[in-house]
Write a structure and sequence with these properties.
Number of strands: 13
Largest sheet: 7 strands, mixed
Radius of gyration: 25 Å
Order of helices and strands: HEHEHEEEHEHHHHHHEHHHEEEHEHEE
Helix content: 40-55%
Oligomer: single chain
Structural class: alpha+beta
Distance between the termini: 61 Å
Strand order of the largest sheet: 7-8-9-10-11-13-12
Shape: globular
Number of helices: 15
Mean pLDDT: 91
């Protein structure tokens, strides 16, 4: 609790007390993420973001009582405000509820930023430790979401600004300054995430921008930081300069971030002895090793089983990932197709995660299989029912659920398949 300000502890204490009194047994877990988790909380400005796990599905009565608790807290404790989501402890991916600025609504909360931040930096107040929760969001999930958000939400927003510059420059200065803080620091947070594979506060993102970007933008970034901190110093004297510079900055930063995505050239290559050292030093997290094999272990098995073909994923010529293609007696457990091949031990090394390498490598897979295994017309794989992050990667890459289930070392698994089309097996 050391990093939680006293004012926040007071509000949380009231909230937990009310929930336990009016809805005993409902809260199975309570966790903080957001600004407090990344040391960006500003007293009087920031909200308190939470995730509440419920022991049961919420009834209409539960919803009414919870809404009343939040409304009462908002009236009695003006700052900080609690904003958060309610999900069932038995199924975090199921439809749940949210409370935000007076609104209590129903939604599926599938934003990777929340779950990644909770998984990596969250604070446990009640219930199981965070590392015991079924949180599978990877850094790759996070950066993919950020890229999409930048090119959808932010690009659209900036385009709309550009269309009405003549109107914006006549808005009250306070309104333009609020937009400047939101846009400049918001985009810099995304810039930081794409480059550093992490999440930081708005002010920290502004300071990062001052270090990473040229002096052309320092006045704009510094003014956004001052606005965020509530300081009076300003770099611009007119709204026209603020708006035009902000638009130029935003367009340039979005373009730079899109170029970051293009830097990695991904290739698939049959394993060679020259790859051994890097594959031996290959980094994966403990949670990832629950579902896949380390390349060094997989290579040992390949030495004695000639039906296993080790494949290396290269990023700009450097081993960044690994998998095995298998054809042997065990194939019949996964498919009745004698012309199929099994994908096993797939992974991307920790330093390369979040760069789109997984998607690129899986896009290359059909062509690689056609070239090296001309008799094969289908790739199959097994993925653990609990490994939702991997499921998303495979499904987005063209695999589909075959409907078959098998048992693996960590429990039941889906069997996915991908058709390999070509002149020889179409």
């Amino acid at each position: 609790m050391e990093k939680i300000p006293e004012s926040v502890q007071k509000v949380l204490g009231h909230y937990i007390k009310k929930c336990n009194e009016e809805l005993p047994g409902l809260l199975a877990g309570l966790y903080l993420h957001g600004s407090i988790a990344i040391d960006g909380y500003i007293d009087g400005e920031s909200d308190v973001d939470f995730v509440a796990l419920t022991s049961r599905e919420l009834t209409d009565k539960d919803i009414s009582v919870l809404k009343g608790i939040h409304v009462n807290l908002a009236e009695t404790c003006k700052n900080p405000q609690l904003d958060g989501i309610y999900v069932q402890s038995s199924n975090l991916a199921a439809e749940g509820f949210f409370y935000n600025e007076g609104t209590f609504g129903k939604a599926v909360h599938n934003i990777p930023v929340t779950w990644w931040l909770l998984k990596n930096k969250g604070i446990t107040l009640l219930g199981p430790a965070i590392n015991e929760l079924p949180l599978h969001e990877t850094t790759e999930d996070l950066t993919e979401y950020v890229r999409k958000n930048m090119n959808d939400y932010w690009a659209t927003r900036i385009s709309a600004m550009e269309q009405k510059v003549d109107q914006l420059i006549h808005y009250p200065v306070e309104q333009i300054e609020a937009e400047m803080e939101w846009t400049v620091l918001g985009l810099l947070r995304q810039f930081y995430t794409l480059k550093e594979k992490d999440i930081i506060s708005k002010i920290a993102a502004g300071e990062y921008g001052l270090r990473e970007l040229g002096p052309k933008w320092h006045g704009l970034i510094q003014e956004a930081i001052h606005i965020r901190k509530g300081r009076p110093e300003r770099s611009f004297s007119t709204n026209e300069d603020r708006v035009n510079t902000m638009i130029q900055f935003a367009k340039g930063l979005i373009e730079s971030c899109n170029k970051l995505q293009l830097k990695s050239e991904v290739k698939l290559e049959n394993y060679q002895i020259a790859h051994l050292k890097q594959l031996t030093d290959y980094e994966l997290t403990e949670s990832q090793l629950i579902y896949t094999s380390h390349p060094s272990n997989a290579l040992e098995v390949c030495e004695t089983d000639k039906g296993r073909y080790p494949i290396v994923i290269l990023s700009n010529g450097v081993p960044a990932g690994f998998f095995v293609l298998y054809q042997g007696e065990e194939l019949v457990e996964y498919t009745e197709n004698p012309n199929a091949i099994l994908l096993r031990a797939y992974s991307v090394a920790l330093p390369f995660q979040g760069q789109g390498i997984a998607y690129s490598s899986l896009e290359l897979l059909p062509g690689f299989v056609r070239e090296n295994f001309p008799q094969v017309n289908e790739v199959v794989l097994a993925v653990n029912l609990r490994n939702e992050a991997a499921q998303r990667v495979y499904l987005r890459s063209g695999f589909e659920d075959s409907g078959k289930r098998v048992m693996g070392r960590m429990g039941e698994q889906f069997v996915y398949r991908l058709k390999v089309k070509g002149e020889k097996n179409s």
